[in-house]
Structure formats: structure tokens, C-alpha cells
Amino acid sequence: MLVCDICGQVLPSEAAVRRHLRRTHLERLPRCPLCGAAAPGYDELQRHIEAAHPELEPPGARCAEPSLGPPECPFCGEAAAGRELEGHVRARHGHLLVPPGTGDGEQLYECPICSLACTNVQILQEHVDLHLEEHSFSEGGNLRDLELAQQLQTEEDKQQRSEEERQEREEFKKLQKQYGLDNSGGYKQQLIKNVEREVDRGRMQPFEYHKRKADMMESLAFGIDDGKTKTSGVIEALCKYYQNENKDVRRVWLSTSVDHFHSSLGDKGWGCGYRNFQMLLSSLLQNSSYDDCLKGIMLTPSIPKIQSMIEDAWKEGFDPHGASHFNNRLRGTKAWIGACEIYSLLTSLRIKCQIIDFHKPTGPVGTHPRLFEWILCYYSTDNEGSAKVVCTSRPPIYLQHQGHSRTVVGIEERKNRTLCLLLFDPGCPSQEMQKLLKQSSDGTSLKLLRKLVGSLKEKQYQIVAVDGVLTLEEKAARCRASRVFTSEKIP
């Protein structure tokens, strides 16, 4: 602790001493009325005047010079001369000149903030004012710092939210584009654009372009597929092949006759779901059991027509949640469809079907042996016997996984008891499928169709399997049930 040399006040630090001197003494010390110099007390001021300004002594000699005038009280400014000034200061302002410690009974005034003892009330007041000023300054500074920090944080949060929203919009646009919901047009627009590109690259003659465009317009007008990507007779060719092949296959089960449809210039990259529906429908159209359900459908519908049919199913009330995902519109888009849309469409036609969800692998290394077992059961039920080749009455199965779908047209049981699916893939072009119609004895073309357990390792598979016809009451019940869509899960 430090003590003021002038008033004896105890202070905590040198900085406090400097503030005390400046505020308590330097600003209020008696000052020379001639040169303004400060003095710690009246005696010192008097000695200063006598030493520095001897012309003021003796009275009436040099101090009477009119250019200087009488000295003024350094505390209140009242003019007085010589000893009169001293008497005035001691009489009027003596309480400021009383040195500390003049008596044991001197009253001390304690600071309520820091408990510092002061010798008079005025000094105490100035001391407390100093505390209050410092506190106010500190509070103001902290408040300004806090406000600035909050403002900076708010701006940073706003910028971060803006960036996150921008990224979300970009991701949403990518997803819309990926799933054909970006308003970039549908089958018709894509076909025209790609045919024009073929002409520009010299791969198509202008007359062929105009013919393709005319055929497309006719196909769209009647809602019938133009058949340019269709391959028929593959199931029949497979039946003949298996009857003559004895190397690896113990037994084989085949679906009813199915036409293969592959993607065209109008739906390449997004049309697999529609093409698989065309395959399934081509089989049902050849099965008299479904004549009543399909009496309004004579030929395989085009992709835009299938989109309209799904929209009609939504209007009936099927799968409202799925419909909202597509904004209740498929026509004029390149929207991907999956198992739920196939189910809704088939059920709206009174075709009995079910969705089976193989939602996780059931075998080692991410495989799905339970999927193969279920399909074997589907085809072999009601088809028991010793025949090596079983041409069943079962329609093909719609098989969906993330990003693609295919059609299951049969299943092999190998001599080593392993199972192998036979799949029609919409990505396989007609010229490759045509090779199956001229199957060689070594079966090399079957590589296009065969998929062993180790070949299907997606995280999840869904199938839509057809199994009969619905009554009107059953259709209505399934429509109501589809408001909260559920599927049978395996396992």
C-alpha cells in the first residue's frame, strides 16, 4: 500500500496514487496568482511568491505595480494582498490545508467501495466519484464489447444459414435432376433432343429423323409403345435350350412368356421402371386369367401413357404420400418410379400383388440368399414334379434396388444346389437379346441373364410379385391401406 505525500491518504497502487494526485491535488492545489505554479499548501505558495516574485515585497513597494494587480485566492478567486490573502485562505479554506495526522481524534471517512480512509468528506466524495467513473467506463466498455460480439455472431450465423440454404437448394436441384423432377421435359422432349443429336453427329440421316419423329407423335397420340425396343420369344428359346443342356443345371423354373423392352433415346437413364412394367404387362396380356382386369388394354402402353395410368391410380386414392413426392404429376417429366408406383398401378387395375422388402442382407459379404429362396418358392409352388424344365404359369417378378430395376423371369437350381436368377435388364439392347433366340450349345449368351447370389449385393431389394385378381371390395380395401404404405419385410 502507498501513502499520498500531500494528504496522507492510503492508496493501493502507484496508478491509484497518480490518479489521486491528479484529481485531488494537482487540479485543486493553490496556484501562484502570478505564474500559475501549484503549491502543496499556502505556506509553500507564500514561500514560492517570496522567492520567485520578490517585486511583491515589501507591501506597497513592488506589489503595487499596476501591471500585476492584487493576487487572487487560488480556491475561490477573491482578490487579497499579502497577509490578507493568507488570512483569507486560512479562514475560508483552512479545511483543505489541514495536514493529516494533526491529532489523534481526527475523524476519518472510509470509502464504501474499497474501505480506503480519507481525512475529509470532499476528498472522499472525489475518491468515490473516481470509483463510479471507472465502473461506468468498464461497464460501458464491456457492454460495447458484448454488443459487438453478439452482432458479429449474428452476422456469422446468418451467413452460415445462408450458405446451408444455398447448399440445400443445390442438393435439391441435383436430386430433382437425378430423379427427373427438374422440369426439363419428359420422354417426348428427350427423344427429339437425342434424335437431333444423332443427326448432328452423322449417325442418322435427316429423312430417318423425320420418320422417327412422325412415328413418335403417332405413338404418343394413341398411347401405344412403338415396339422398336421389344424382343419377343426369349422364354420359349430358353425352354428349348434347358431341355438340351445338362452340364450344370439340375432344374430350372421359367415364368410365362415375357417380351423384353430396353430403354430408348427417349427414356435412357431414367426409364427402367416403366420398361420393367411393360415386360410384366406383356406377360399378363398373354394370360387369360387377367383378361377382365386388362380389358381396356390391348397393346403395351407407351411410357407417357404409363405415367398417365399411375396418375389415375393416385387420383383414385392410392399411395397419397408417394403421389405428393412427385407433386402428383409424372407426365412431361423424367421421374423415376419404383416398387410403390408399380404396386399402385397394378392394384388400381385389380391385379393382386404384394411388395416384399428384403431390407438388409441375409448372407455373408452383403448377399441376399433369402431373396433367392423366396423367388424359388414363388416359382416352384404348385409346380412340383421331376421335370428338369418347368414352364410355370407364374408372371415375372419386378425387382427393384437403389438406382435400377430389372425383371425376374426364372430361377436355376444348379447341381451343386446353388441358385441363379434369370433377369431381363432394360439396359440390355435388342441386338444382345436377339442372340438368346439363337442360343448356342455352350450357353455363353446366358451370361446376360444369369445372376448368382454373389452378384446381388445391394443393401436393399424390393420385389413386386403378382398372384391373381382382386375383387372390387379387395381393391377398395387395398386403396385405403395404401394411405399408410407398408410392405412385408424379410427378415
Specify the CATH class of the largest domain: Alpha Beta
CATH architectural group of the largest domain = Alpha-Beta Complex
Radius of gyration: 51 Å
List segments where confidence is low: pLDDT < 50 over at least 5 consecutive residues.
Answer: 57-68, 98-104
Overall pLDDT confidence: 84
Derived from helix and strand composition plus strand pairing, the structural class reads alpha+beta
What is the count of distinct domains? 2
CATH topology assignment of the largest domain: Cathepsin B, Chain A
Write down the overall geometry: rod-shaped
Strand percent estimate: 5-15%
Alpha carbon gap, first and last residue: 83 Å
What share of residues is helical? 40-55%
SSE order: EEHHHEEHHHEHEEHHHHEHEEEEHEEHE
Overall number of strands: 15
Count of helix runs = 14
Tell me about the largest β-sheet. Answer: 9 strands, mixed
Describe this entry's structure for a reader.
The two termini are 83 Å apart. With 491 residues, this protein is of the alpha+beta class. Helix 5 (187-200) packs antiparallel against helix 6 and helix 9 crosses helix 11 (339-348). The protein is rod-shaped, with a radius of gyration of 51 Å. 43% of the residues lie in helices and 13% in strands. The strands form four sheets. Strands 6, 8, 9, 10, 11, 12, 13, 14 and 15 form a nine-stranded mixed sheet that branches. Strands 1-2 form a two-stranded antiparallel ribbon.
